[in-house]
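Teaching assistant here, posting this on the class forum so everyone can see the example we discussed in section. The complex has four components, and the goal was to see what a joint structure prediction looks like when all of them are supplied at once.
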Amino acid sequence: MITQKEIADMCGVSTSTISNILNGKLKVSEATRQRVLEVVRKTGYQPNYFAQGMRKQKTNIIGIITEDLIQFSSPPIIERIMAYCEDMNYRTILVNMRMYDKWLNTWYEDEKKLQSVLQPAIQELLSIKVDGIIYVAGHGRIINCFPDDFKVPAMVVYSYSKSSKFTSVVIDDEKGGYDMTRYLISRGHRKIGVIAGTADNMHTQKRCLGYQKALYEDGILYNPDWIRYGDWQRESGYQGCGQLLNEGVTAIFCMNDDMAAGVYDYLYEHGMKAGEDISIAGYDNMEISKYLKPALTTNEIPFSEIGTKSAEIMIRSLMEESEDNESAEVVRIPCQIIERDSVRDLK
Amino acid sequence: MITQKEIADMCGVSTSTISNILNGKLKVSEATRQRVLEVVRKTGYQPNYFAQGMRKQKTNIIGIITEDLIQFSSPPIIERIMAYCEDMNYRTILVNMRMYDKWLNTWYEDEKKLQSVLQPAIQELLSIKVDGIIYVAGHGRIINCFPDDFKVPAMVVYSYSKSSKFTSVVIDDEKGGYDMTRYLISRGHRKIGVIAGTADNMHTQKRCLGYQKALYEDGILYNPDWIRYGDWQRESGYQGCGQLLNEGVTAIFCMNDDMAAGVYDYLYEHGMKAGEDISIAGYDNMEISKYLKPALTTNEIPFSEIGTKSAEIMIRSLMEESEDNESAEVVRIPCQIIERDSVRDLK
DNA sequence: TCGTTTTAGTAAATCGTTTTACTTGATATA
DNA sequence: TATATCAAGTAAAACGATTTACTAAAACGA
C-alpha cells in the first residue's frame, strides 16, 4: 500500500508538507496544496492507521463492550452507536462478553464471573488506546465497571453505573411503569395485576414504583398480592397468570413480552383470550409481540434512541475534553406505549 | 501506560530481550526469562498495539463486513466469528453496511447502492491492514465483493461469491428444501404447496430444486401452481395461503417463518388451525416460531455453526498462507428440522 | 539600504515495538 | 594450543506517520 513518503517523492516535497496539507495547521501555498491533493486522490493514498495512532496518542476509536451481542436489546443499541460514530468520523471496536447463557436463557449473575470477563475486556480496549469506552448492558443490574479514577471517558448504557462519576443512559422505567398503569386505569381497570421481573432488578423495582404511584394517584389501594415476581421468562408468565387470576384482577401488566407470551399460553390452555376475557400488556415491544394473537399492547423500549443518545454524549465529552467536565448524569429515555389488541375497555 | 523500555530498565536488560521472551525465537536463559515474566505480570505490561502493528506487517485483525447488523441472521453469525477469533488470539473489527431498511422491511436491492457502501468499507478495512475479511451477507444474493486479484484473504458467508476465487460458507438450501418436502411426504402428504421467497433469490431457487427432487423421487407429479412466490414477508404468506388453499393442498411449506406467520393469520381469520385443518412448515426457526400457536415446525438455520465454520476456515487459511492455497470452496452447512405442532399425519 | 517580518517549506526527532546482524565469553573440538 | 561452536544478549535499523524547531527567500517598513 502506498505510503506518505512515496506521495512526497511524486510531488517533490517533504513528508512534512503532505502531513500538513492533510491535517496540519501550518501554511502551505495553494499551488502545492492542489498538486498534492490531486496525487493523493489519484493514488488513493490513505495514511497508515498504526503509524498515525502511534504518533498522535489519539486513535479516534471508541470501544464498545457488550454484555451479550446475542440478546435482542444489544444489536439495535450497538447499531446506532456505530452509525453515529461513523458519521462523526470515529471508529468503533466491539468486545462481546458473552454473559448470556443461550441454553439456560439466563444471565450469569455472578459478580465475580462478570468482573473476570470485564476487566480483561477493558484492558484490551485500553491497550488499543481507545479514546472512550461505552458499556452496553443487557439487563438492569447496577454496574461497577470503572474505577473512579479511570483515565479515559467511559459511560454505561441500558443500566445504571454504580459510580456517579460516569454518565449512564437508561430507559425511564418508573415512568414506563406509571404510564402503563395509567393507561390500564384509563381503560377502566382498577384491579391491575403485575407480573414483574426478578425482584432485585432495577427495571423491576423502578417500574413497580411507577405502578404504585399511578395506583396512588387514582386512589386505588395498593395490594401486594397483585404483584408476582417472575424471572423474565415465558414460563414464569404462565405461573403468574394462574395466580393473578385467582386474585380476580381484570388486567395484567407484564414487565416483558416473553412473560406476556407465557400469560397467553395460560389463557390459551384455559380457553380464554387476551383482550376479551382479560386485558394483557407487555413491555419491550419484541418482535414476537406482533405475532401473538391477539397482538400484544406493549411499552416499546427505544433502543435506537438509546444508542444514538449514548454515542452523542460520548463524542461530545470527547470534544470538550480540554475542560475536564465533571458533568456525569443519568439520562432517562422514555418508552412509548404501542396499542394493539390485548387491552379492552372494562365496561 | 507502561512501555517495553521501562520493563527493560527494571530488569536490567535490553528491549530486544523482552521482545524475544514475549514472542521471539532466540535463546534466552531460563533465569532472565523468569525474572522478566515476573515483572511483566506485576506491571500488567501490554505491548502497544500500534507499535506492534506497524513493525510486523501483520495486525492479527480480521475484518467483518455485515450487510446489516439489525437483521436477525447477523448477530448469531457474527457472535460466533468473534468468539472463535478471540479464542485463536485474533481481534475482529466490524463494519456495518446498514443495507436493510427497517421501515420497509426490505433490503436495498440496488447493486450500485451496495457497491457504493461496500467499496469504502473494504478500503477502510484495508487501511487498517486487516489480515483477512469475512463478508457476512444478510440474504441470498450472489455477491461480487472482491476483485479476483484481491490481496488479502477474503470470504463470503451466508451467500455465494460470484468469483470462485473466494470460499463461501452457505446453508445447504437444496437439501433443506428436499428434507422438508420428504418430511411432509413421510407424514402422508402428497399435495404440498410452497410459499417461496422472491424468485431471483438463491435460497428460493435452491430450495425449490430440493422440493422438486423430493417430489420426483416419490413419483409425485410436479405442479407449478403449487409454488407461490412471496417476498419473505408476513403479508405475502397470507396471500399465498389463500391461493394454495384453492389448489387443495394439504400441507404448505413456507420458506421462512415470517411468511408462515402470515399463513397462520389467514387460517386464524378463516377459523382454521395449523396442524389440524392443514399442515404448515416454516424455515429459519426464528424466535417467533416457538410463540405461534400451535408452535411451528420449521427448518432451523444453524447460524452459530455457520459463524464458527467461517472463522475456522479464515484462520486456517491465514495460517497456511505461505503455500498460497487456491483451495476456495463452497461449504454447505445442513439445516435441521425442528418438529413442533404444525404438521400432522394425513390419515 | 538595512533590519525585520512573513511565507513556504524542510530536517530530524519521536512514538514503541520487532528483527537483523553483531558481540562477548565460555565451551567443545582437532 | 588454536580454532570452531555455542549460548546469551545487545545495538541499531526499521515500520510510517506527526510535530517541533529551524531555514531560505521574499516582502515590508523606514
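For the discussion questions: Chain B has three domains: 1-47, 48-171+305-333, 173-301. Chain B has a mean pLDDT of 93. Think about how each of these relates to the inputs above.
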